[in-house]
Design a protein that fits this description.
Blueprint: E1 7-12, E2 22-28, H1 36-44, H2 49-61, E3 70-74, E4 83-90, H3 104-119, E5 126-130, H4 142-158, E6 165-172, H5 175-188, H6 198-212
Parallel strand pairs: 1-6, 2-4, 2-5, 5-6
Antiparallel strand pairs: 3-4
Helix pairs in contact: 3-4, 4-5, 5-6
Protein name: Macro domain-containing protein
InterPro entries: Macro_dom (IPR002589), Macro_dom-like (IPR043472)
Pfam families: Macro
Length: about 220
């Protein structure tokens, strides 16, 4: 018998401003919090957060992480989150170079390790704010990244009899990113009725109709 989630949702906006207990950070092998999602998490988790997660990385890995590894830390002074899962999709061990950027294989292994790492958190009914790993500065397409996350999450749940994961919220920051995330996630999971604006549902339906007709 496979495990199941209570709910999977898609939200628009900044995941650091949501109510999830776990924030997923598309990070790098040095856990340096830069701009975008990482910057939002750094600001939301309060002063000294960067220094604490570097210390946690060194204590666990003895230095930089390998690409695809996951480091779970506290969430500092964040008002609602308790943990941050830092996923090393960018490889900065030798500075910025052509091999720094992830491919889908790295994102796939990263997602698989992420779901397993979250199961080790000593809490139940975990809510998780998920980001599209490897997009933005990582250079991958949002749809591909979200699809990989959905596939690995489905496989993770299928392989387990029980899960600590209760709610996963996929975030899209802009309206186009949100609509694209809705389109992909809804292929794998039933989104709560009324959780997606009607105009977005109609946009997604038109896109699927065009795909069926080869347009």
């Amino acid at each position: 018998m496979s495990a199941s989630l209570s709910v999977v949702e898609v939200a628009q906006g900044n995941l650091a401003e949501g109510d999830a207990r776990v924030l997923v950070n598309a990070s790098n092998t040095n856990v340096q919090l830069g701009s975008g999602v990482s910057g939002a998490i750094r600001r939301a988790c309060g002063p000294g957060f960067q220094e604490r997660i570097v210390t946690a990385m060194r204590e666990r890995f003895g230095g930089p992480m390998a690409p695809g590894e996951v480091l779970v830390t506290d969430a500092g002074t964040h008002p609602t989150a308790k943990w941050v899962a830092h996923v090393a999709v960018m490889d900065y061990r030798e500075g910025m170079h052509g091999g720094s950027f992830p491919d889908l294989a790295r994102v796939q292994s990263s997602c698989a390790k992420l779901w397993e790492a979250l199961e080790l958190i000593e809490d139940t009914n975990l809510s998780v704010a998920m980001v599209a790993l490897g997009t933005g500065t990582g250079g991958l397409g949002l749809r591909d990244s979200v699809e990989v996350a959905c596939v690995t999450l489905t496989e993770h749940l299928r392989a387990r009899a029980h899960t600590r994961l209760d709610r996963v919220v996929f975030y899209g920051y802009s309206l186009p990113e949100y609509a694209a995330t809705v389109e992909v996630v809804s292929r794998f999971f039933a989104l709560p009725e009324g959780s997606v604006p009607q105009e977005v549902l109609e946009f997604v339906a038109r896109g699927r109709e065009q795909e069926r007709h080869g347009k």
